[in-house]
Design goal:
The complex is a heterodimer.
Chain A (H helix, E strand, L loop, with lengths): L2 H12 L5 H13 L1 H18 L10 H13 L5 H6 L8 H19 L1 H16 L30 H6 L5 H13 L1 H9 L19 H6 L8 H11 L11 H21 L3 H12 L11 H4 L4 E7 L2 H14 L3 E7 L3 E9 L3 H11 L1 E4 L10 E10 L2
Parallel strand pairs in A: 1-5
Antiparallel strand pairs in A: 1-4, 2-3, 3-5
Helix pairs in contact in A: 1-3, 2-3, 7-13, 7-14, 9-10, 9-13, 16-17
Chain B lengths: L23 E3 L11 E3 L3 H8 L3 H23 L2 H18 L9 H27 L25 H20 L2 H12 L4 H8 L3 H23 L3
Antiparallel strand pairs in B: 1-2
Helix pairs in contact in B: 1-2, 2-3, 2-4, 3-4, 4-7, 5-8, 6-8, 7-8
The chains are: A alpha+beta, B mainly alpha.
């Protein structure tokens, strides 16, 4: 080995870290090389010099200074974020508190909006079902008579029948449906039809012959003589503050007035499906009620079933009413269903044919065979007026 | 920077601390070591108490290791006040990190590693600061007048001899400071502090072979430097 190679190995010799073979080689070289021996000696002395350097001592109170900072660190006040998320120094962070608040709030909202939710659910469910039975001119939305239990139309509030007539809903639902009708006369017919299932089919609303609920509050017409007193009686009987969730009735009524018509407006946009929805709703109104004599005429099954397609159903109804006056007939009930009208008409048997001719001038009429024999002298017609597309 | 003042008075050495139960802590497996070795650490008891928030136990650890840590930092930095600051920050870091200390190595080894990291960070910051100010970067070791060694003064030593000795030590420190940082680390830890190669490897997270090669280069460089400044050894 050369001196250069030996010098590289000399530092390891200080700690005796060389392998035996290399150590023997280095020792043999050192025995014959004075320069390498000197270099090894210098290495040893350099290490001794370094080792002999004196140690320094910590300054006074060095430990105390360190520990003062350590103690400050140990009791360091929590930061803003820590305070925010652990305000009470307990293991319940604010997230859990927020979750509880959200749950409570959601429960309150759910309970406060439960009537509206039920109303919307009740209104939307039949609508969905009515998709199948979309009203066609040839097949008016009259459900099968056997499928719909007889439910009297006298679902007026204040009577036991009224409380159970709205598809088995509690009383407040009946009130809820009625309230918007009272406050919004234009929609009263749409509203009032809901809780009034007919005995065998749909639930026509008293429009022409029977005033709306708003009108009924004032003076009850003759056609619904028993309804108006019942309504008034119910309003009088109902104790104050027995509204939904103990709220005053006015509050509930006003709130429902804001919500229910909107739901109905949605339905109105669905056009003819409303008729089917009304028919389905009649299925829900299965609770029996004794006051059926009030609108027996209105709910009985028609002798003749017609459908009329017209560009403007409302105008067509006006023309029908005008024509009917000319023929000595009268409109028993009128159901406004947004996209269409359903009229229950009474007319003498001998004037049915001329009346049909007159209707042909109003729109496209599809006449079906009478569902049952006509009564003596007078016939009951159901005219479904739908928008002509 | 805190105004640390070095005193020549000998501080009482840390009282021998009791062996708190002689906890056996699992050691981090080293490549060359056996896999399931355990290491006895006299600091295991205080460390366990520190993990529960006992500051008094940490005071015991500070008392045990402050001098050695200060000397390491001082040999690395060369400035007593700055070394004190670095050691103080190192202990603070150790306190913050003691919750995650799993006993995979001795506490003293981990503490040395923290001190060395703080030292490197301090030196790099100092280099940046001097570079920004445009001033010439001072040597790692303060020369004459910057430091007075803390060795006991011999009554027989004359003033001239004392001055000569201090000048010689200043040159030695200058030589140490002139070493590369990596070489200086292993030289301080091995030849001054006497740590084993294994401990140094654990502190620096280096294999022992790398530690040895760095040390051998450091020794050769130191020898050359001392021959240059002292003339003869």
């Amino acid at each position: 080995m050369t001196c250069g190679e030996i010098e590289k190995l000399l530092p390891a010799c200080l700690d005796d870290l060389l392998p035996r073979k290399e150590r023997e080689g280095v020792e043999g070289h050192l025995a014959s090389c004075a320069a390498c021996r000197l270099a090894l000696n210098h290495l040893r002395k350099a290490r001794e010099i370094v080792r002999d350097l004196g140690e320094v001592d910590p300054p006074p109170f060095f430990e105390q200074r360190i520990m003062s900072r350590i103690r400050e660190e140990a009791v360091k006040k929590p930061g803003i974020l820590w305070k925010f998320f652990h305000p009470l120094h307990i293991k319940i962070p604010i997230q859990a508190l927020a979750a509880v608040c959200i749950v409570v709030l959601a429960l309150q909202v759910y309970r406060a909006g439960e009537p509206e939710m039920k109303a919307v659910a009740n209104l939307s469910l039949p609508t969905a079902e009515s998709e199948k039975g979309r009203i066609e001119a040839e097949s008016p939305p009259v459900p099968e008579a056997a499928a719909i239990p007889q439910a009297p139309a006298a679902s007026l509030p204040g009577t036991p029948a009224a409380r159970g007539a709205v598809g088995g809903l509690p009383e407040k639902d009946g009130q809820r449906i009625a309230s918007p009708s009272a406050e919004r006369g234009g929609k009263a017919d749409r509203m009032a039809d809901t809780p009034k299932p007919t005995g065998e089919g749909f639930a026509p609303v008293v429009k022409s012959g029977i005033p709306s609920l708003a009108e009924r509050k004032g003076a009850a017409p003759s056609a619904v003589k028993s309804e108006a007193p019942a309504m008034a009686a119910q309003e009088g009987e109902t104790p104050a503050g027995t509204g939904v969730m103990g709220k005053p009735r006015e509050t509930v009524a006003s709130r429902e007035t804001d919500t229910i018509p909107e739901a109905l407006l949605i339905r109105q946009k669905r056009g003819e499906r409303e008729v089917g929805a009304v028919a389905d709703r009649a299925k829900m109104a299965a609770a029996p009620a004794p006051s059926r004599e009030t609108t027996q005429e209105a709910i009985r099954e028609p002798d003749i079933d017609w459908s009329l397609r017209a560009g403007d159903p409302a105008a067509a109804v006006g023309e029908i009413e005008e024509a009917l006056n000319g023929f000595g007939g009268r409109i028993i009930t009128r159901l406004h269903s947004g996209g269409g009208e359903i009229l229950m008409v009474e007319i003498t048997a001998e004037r049915v044919a001329p009346f049909l001719d007159r209707l042909a001038a109003v729109g496209e009429v599809h006449a079906k065979e009478p569902s049952r024999a006509a009564t003596e002298g007078k016939r009951t017609l159901r005219i479904t007026v739908v928008r002509n597309r | 920077m805190l105004g640390w003042h070095r005193t020549d008075s000998l501080q009482e050495s840390p009282a021998p601390y009791p062996l708190t139960g002689g906890n056996i802590l699992p050691e981090r497996p080293e490549p060359a070591a056996a896999q399931n070795r355990t290491v006895e650490d006299d600091d295991a008891g205080p460390v366990a108490r520190c993990r529960r928030g006992d500051t008094e136990a940490f005071a015991l650890l500070v008392r045990r290791h402050q001098k050695r840590m200060l000397n390491i930092a001082y040999r690395m930095i060369g400035d007593y006040d700055e070394a004190c600051d670095v050691v103080q920050e190192a202990f603070l870091s150790a306190w913050r990190a003691i919750g995650g200390f799993r006993g995979e190595a001795r506490f003293s080894t981990c503490l040395c590693g923290i001190v060395l990291n703080q030292t490197r960070s301090h030196l790099s910051q100092r280099a940046v600061r001097f570079r920004r100010e445009g001033a010439p970067l001072p040597g790692v070791v303060k020369s004459a007048g910057g430091f007075i060694a803390n060795e006991p003064c011999s009554s027989e030593e004359s003033a001239v001899e004392r001055i000569e000795r201090r000048e010689r030590e200043a040159k030695v420190r200058e030589c140490i400071g002139s070493l590369d940082g990596e070489q200086r680390e292993v030289l301080v830890l091995r030849d001054i502090q006497g740590f084993s190669y294994e401990e140094i490897g654990a502190m620096l997270k280096l294999p022992e072979g790398t530690v040895k090669s760095r040390l051998f280069r450091a020794r050769s460089a130191l020898k050359e430097g001392l021959l240059r400044v002292l003339g003869d050894l």
